[in-house]
Design brief:
The protein has 468 residues and is mainly β. It has a domain of 50 residues. The protein has a 24-stranded mixed sheet, with no helix packed on it. It has a 24-stranded mixed sheet. Strand 1 and strand 2 form a beta hairpin.
């Protein structure tokens, strides 16, 4: 049986077997429920609603309200006004309504919706689903594996403890995964994404984003826009995608790909693998034994410290090994290769390349096709010319110079080189080294060619070559 009870001059309550329905008034009231399932309606005024225990429904109504669900799984609606809502213990459903609201889930697996305006949302302990709605919101997942969604607006989202999913939507957002293995999505806008600790997946989306993987082994995707990406610590995978990106791997053994655009890529500490992708890229291996490939475009590659492997790929590229014993490959295009300090191996490959070995005992390697490279600093006392045996049809023993003496000849004119019996012919006057495929037949043949021109025409002997 139901009965109406007046609790005070302005508050009306309706009792039944399931709990109590409590109505506020136009004044600012303090409305407190019972241990049963209550419905508390604040009406107008700046009210304080307390659900106490059980599963309550609370609606603050108009005004700037303070609402506490207490124990139980509560449904709380702030309606209009700048409200403060605390779900308390239990799996609660909180909605902010109009106004700049503060919504706190506290303990339990909560569903929190900020709606319009600029809201502050904290999920508290438990696995929560948090949505800011329109406006510039601040959302914190706190403990648990949470889903945070900023909705439109310039939002600040922090996942806190646990493995969280964080999405910024439109607007210029700040998204922090914090502790745990998090998935962070920037969507549209110029966003800042921070993985912080853990093995995180970060996606910048549209816009010019700033992304930092933080600690752990992270996967970072810049997507469209001119992005700045830092892997920080850990063995990271960093992909710039479209746009002119600036990527730094930081510490760890990283895999970096610039994608489309003119990118600046730095491996940082560790043994890194870096690919420039499309565009004219600048690639630095920095510290460690790095693998660098320029891909398409006119690229600049610098190995830095360590024993590096650099491939220019297509385009007219400039590659420098830096310190260490490096391998440099020009591939197609007219490239400049500089070995730097250390014992380096340089292969210009196709195109008319310029090769400088630098300090150390360097090897200049030739395949069947060269294009007529320029070698600027060959030192016969310490450097070697490496020829691939099968490519030049040689019979000399591998690992030595010309064991078959007739396969190498020294001449004084290019005409004499073209009619020589030898396969490899050196003009000691102008420093030109030829591959003579026709041998005694005039001309070098379809596969014969000028291999290289050695600056200063140094004295070359069979012992200056190595057959591999």
């Amino acid at each position: 049986m139901n009965s109406n009870i007046v609790l005070s001059g302005n508050i009306l309550a309706l009792n039944d077997d399931r709990g109590r329905i409590i109505f506020g008034s136009v004044r600012s009231e303090r409305l407190v429920g019972t241990p049963s399932d209550d419905i508390i309606l604040g009406q107008t005024g700046n009210d304080t609603l307390i659900g106490l225990a059980a599963n309550d429904n609370l609606d603050g109504g108009l005004g700037n309200d303070i609402i506490n669900g207490g124990l139980g799984d509560d449904l709380i609606v702030a309606s209009e006004g700048n409200d403060i809502i605390n779900g308390g213990l239990g799996d609660d459903n909180l909605s902010g309504g109009a106004g700049n609201d503060t919504l706190i889930g506290l303990v339990g697996a909560d569903e929190i919706f900020g709606s319009d305006a600029n809201d502050i949302i904290n999920g508290g302990t438990g696995d929560d689903n948090l949505s800011g709605g329109f406006g510039n919101d601040r959302i914190a997942g706190s403990d648990g594996n949470d889903n945070l969604y900023g909705d439109p607006g310039n939002d600040i989202l922090n996942g806190g403890l646990g493995n969280d999913i964080i999405s910024g939507d439109s607007g210029n957002d700040i998204l922090n995964g914090s502790l745990g293995n998090d998935d962070v999505f920037g969507s549209s806008g110029n966003d800042r994404l921070i993985g912080f600790a853990g093995g995180d997946d970060l996606f910048g989306g549209e816009g010019n984003d700033i992304i930092n993987g933080g600690l752990g082994n992270d996967d970072v995707f810049g997507s469209s826009g001119n992005d700045r990406i830092a892997g920080s610590d850990g063995n990271d995978y960093l992909y710039g995608d479209s746009g002119n990106d600036n990527i730094n791997g930081g510490a760890g053994n990283d895999i970096i790909s610039g994608g489309e655009g003119n990118d600046i890529l730095n491996g940082g500490l560790g043994n890194d693998t870096i690919g420039g992708g499309e565009g004219n890229n600048r690639i630095l291996g920095s510290n460690g034994n790095d693998f660098l490939i320029g891909d398409s475009g006119n690229d600049i590659l610098v190995g830095g410290l360590g024993n590096d492997f650099l491939i220019a790929d297509s385009g007219n590229d400039r590659i420098a090994g830096g310190n260490g014993n490096d391998d440099l490959v020009g591939d197609s295009g007219n490239d400049i290769l500089v070995g730097g300090l250390g014992n380096d191996e340089l292969l210009g490959d196709q195109g008319r390349d310029t090769l400088l070995g630098g300090a150390g005992q360097d090897e200049f390697r030739f395949l069947g096709e060269s294009g007529g490279d320029r070698i600027r600093d060959f030192a016969p006392i310490q450097d070697k010319i490496e020829l691939v045996r099968e490519d030049f049809g040689l019979r000399s023993v591998e690992g030595q110079g010309f064991s078959v003496r007739s396969e190498f000849a020294i001449v004084n004119t290019n005409l004499a080189a073209a009619s020589s019996i030898a396969r490899i012919v050196y003009n000691q006057v102008n420093g030109a080294l030829f591959y003579n495929a026709n041998q005694r037949v005039p001309g070098f043949g379809q596969t014969g060619e000028l291999l290289a021109i050695f600056a200063g025409a140094p004295n070359l002997l069979p012992g200056n070559f190595e057959i591999t």
